[in-house]
Design a protein that fits this description.
Strand order of the largest sheet of chain B: 2-1-3-4-6-5-7
CATH architecture of the largest domain in chain A: 3-Layer(aba) Sandwich
Radius of gyration of chain A: 20 Å
Oligomer: heterodimer
Helix content of chain A: 40-55%
Number of strands of chain B: 7
Number of domains of chain A: 2
CATH superfamily of the largest domain in chain A: Thiamin diphosphate (ThDP)-binding fold, Pyr/PP domains
Structural class of chain B: alpha/beta
CATH architecture of chain B: 3-Layer(aba) Sandwich
Number of strands of chain A: 15
Strand order of the largest sheet of chain A: 3-2-4-5-7-6-13
Structural class of chain A: alpha/beta
Largest interface: A-B, 40 and 35 residues
Radius of gyration of chain B: 17 Å
Strand content of chain A: 15-25%
Number of helices of chain A: 13
Number of domains of chain B: 1
Shape of chain A: globular
Order of helices and strands of chain B: HEHEHEHHEHHEHEHHE
Distance between the termini of chain A: 50 Å
Distance between the termini of chain B: 38 Å
Strand content of chain B: 15-25%
Largest sheet of chain A: 7 strands, mixed
Order of helices and strands of chain A: EHEHEHEHHEHEHEHEEHEEHEEHEHEH
CATH class of the largest domain in chain A: Alpha Beta
CATH superfamily of chain B: Thiamin diphosphate (ThDP)-binding fold, Pyr/PP domains
Chain lengths: ~350, ~250
């Protein structure tokens, strides 16, 4: 399948997960991720896969834990309030070194919030997806095509590093339709998992999937080993896309839906002779700080988000006070316009 | 006949308190696994509670689940390994308080899993707090004046509740307080595993158990309290059995 087809983001992501070898999906209804689970419920029975509507988000992520422990590529999807319920499971996945893919089609929060698109779960995904010392791989698609492409990468890297991965999407990307090309050669061959609890068959010692280490020195050693792995990931797996950054005075930093808007704003600025550019993080963790640091010509950074300012923390950490980092955002389900962003660019340009 | 350690138990010594029922029930589960010859395709799920270290005691593959989530984890495993034999081992707080939703829904889906449910009417590992199965009037750390049903509600009869659900193939309450009852318990656990292997649906064996440490009683007095106070509230017997072999309907 190499021709372009028109698909909704949520459905395209679901189909791509199947092409990546996912045969176990556990979900619970919530807007705006509905189409994703609906697509799985339609497809899985036809390909010998499992679609199960759990009794709660909590149960769904624990079913993912079970299926992953048993050696399967497993996935669950939800939207912001539901991801909060999955926190416990995310922590156990990380503590048990289990791969899995969790999709967050973000909506506005806190609380029940709203059902319009938002990027207000950045902190949750990159800082505190659950209790304890751990990280998750976090991918941020900005097109329907990327909803497709990043799922396979999330499964593969999850398996490579034995850790869960989040696809941090939003209601805008989930609901929009765009032409996509599905991966031609589906990589349904799931890597060997010698650690899986799938029955020892009398051929090996029993495997144990566990996150309990009651002895503090042991717990510290295991956590430190996990963080050495995280260091390797920070070194090797930073992903981003850059647009007109080489000579840019003002470098915008935006991911997902707000990156689409920021790109339009950069074009508008360029037409007016302002040297603007865009860094679009594709991995939110590991955050592409190397790319940000490499922009020597930049005089200021403008972070554009659909939140009150969350990723801007990571930009500031990368810049470490050396240059101005300015934030512009809309929240509560409001989407910034390119004109609004252009206005912010001009404000900065006036000051540098 | 030589009395030996079942192969399905590791050589790790149990950490359980003197008089605790866990040791006997672990052995019965291991004997069932041995007799059915399924250790190589069995996956067990350890709970949060005193039996959290069960993953060190059973020789089959083991997963340690979050508090209350054992049956959701078991569901994921069983759906990935339909030919596997999957059991959870849970206490009353784990199964009937924080894990009630997971329990009821695994049961009503008729998940082909076996649940070993230890009901000792108390939270053991955290030091003796009120459990969902604590009896009216029973003194615990968090019901120091006795469980008041007005304030703290009534204990849950789990097997009676689950027996009303169509997905349940076997729900039986047993005890290990006497040789006779140990034999009945052993047969029940084995039957539950057999039903699972025949694909009959959800099976649960509730074991009314003692906790001398947190009950503050001697081993002998604990057994007397179990018989005199717990069994009248939690009567032993089969609450539901759809029948084994060809007779039973899936």
């Amino acid at each position: 399948m190499t021709e372009k087809i028109l698909m909704k983001g949520n459905e395209a992501l679901a189909e791509a997960a199947i092409l990546a070898g996912c045969r176990h999906f556990f979900g619970y209804p919530i807007t705006p991720q509905t189409e994703l689970a609906a697509h799985m419920s339609k497809r899985m029975p036809k390909i010998g896969g499992v679609y199960l509507q759990a009794e709660s988000e909590v149960a769904a992520i624990n079913m993912v834990i079970g299926a992953s422990a048993a050696g399967a590529r497993a996935m669950t999807s939800s939207s912001s309030p539901g991801i909060s319920l999955k926190s416990e499971g995310l922590s156990y996945l990380a503590g048990s070194d289990l791969p899995a893919v969790i999709v967050n089609v973000q909506r506005a929060g806190p609380g029940l919030g709203g059902i319009q698109p938002s990027q207000a779960d950045y902190w949750q995904a990159t800082r505190a997806p659950g209790h304890g010392d751990f990280r998750l791989l976090v991918f941020a698609p900005s097109t329907v095509q990327e909803m497709v492409d990043l799922v396979g990468i999330a499964f593969d890297l999850g398996d490579k590093y034995r850790m869960p991965a989040i696809i941090l999407s939003d209601g805008l990307l989930g609901q929009m339709m765009e032409p996509v090309v599905m991966p031609a050669g589906s990589n349904t061959k799931v890597p060997e998992r010698p650690w899986a609890t799938c029955g020892h068959g009398g051929k090996r010692e029993h495997n144990i999937i566990n996150s309990l280490y009651i002895d503090p020195p042991n717990m510290e050693a295991i956590t430190k080993a996990r963080f050495r792995k995280y260091e390797e990931i920070k070194e090797k797996e930073q992903r981003r896309e850059e647009y007109l950054t080489d000579d840019a005075d003002v470098v915008l930093v935006a991911y997902g839906a707000s990156a689409r808007i920021s790109r339009s704003a950069v074009d508008m600025a360029r037409k007016e002779g302002i040297k603007a550019g865009l860094i679009r993080p594709i991995t939110l963790w590991p955050f592409p700080d190397k790319a940000i640091l490499s922009k020597k010509a930049a005089k200021a950074f403008l972070c554009v988000e659909m939140s009150m300012g969350q990723m801007v923390d990571d930009v500031r950490l990368a810049i470490n006070g050396k240059k101005d980092v300015i934030f512009f955002g809309r929240t509560g389900g409001m989407v910034p316009t390119p004109a609004e962003v252009l206005k912010e660019i001009k404000k900065i340009k006036g000051g540098i | 006949m030589k009395f030996q350690r079942p192969h399905a138990l590791t050589k790790t010594e149990f950490h359980y308190c003197p008089g605790c029922s866990h040791g006997i029930v672990h052995r019965l589960v291991a004997e069932a696994i041995d007799e059915l010859g399924v250790e190589g395709r069995t996956v067990g799920i350890a709970p949060v509670g005193c039996a959290v270290f069960a993953y060190n005691y059973f020789n089959c593959d083991m997963v340690q689940a979050a508090h209350g989530r054992a049956q959701a984890v078991a569901t994921g495993i069983k759906r990935a390994l339909p030919d596997g034999v999957v059991f959870t081992y849970q206490g009353d707080g784990d199964l009937a308080a924080i894990g009630t939703a997971e329990t009821v829904h695994a049961a009503t889906r008729g998940e082909n899993i076996t649940v070993i449910f230890i009901n000792n009417a108390i939270y053991g590992m955290t030091g003796g707090q009120m459990a969902p199965t604590t009896l009216p009037g029973q003194v615990t750390q968090t019901t120091p004046y006795g469980r008041s049903t007005k304030d703290a509600g009534h204990p849950i009869r789990v097997c009676e509740m689950l027996a009303t659900l169509d997905g349940v193939a076997l729900a039986q309450r047993v005890s290990v307080d006497s040789v006779k009852n140990v034999k009945i318990a052993k047969k029940a656990i084995r039957k539950a595993f057999e039903y699972q292997m025949e694909g009959k649906g959800y099976t649960i064996i509730e074991v009314v158990s003692v906790c001398p440490t947190n009950w503050g009683l001697s081993m002998q007095d604990s057994l007397e309290w179990l018989r005199g106070s717990m069994l009248p509230h939690y009567p032993l017997g089969v609450l539901k059995d759809i029948g084994g072999g060809k007779e039973g309907k899936a």
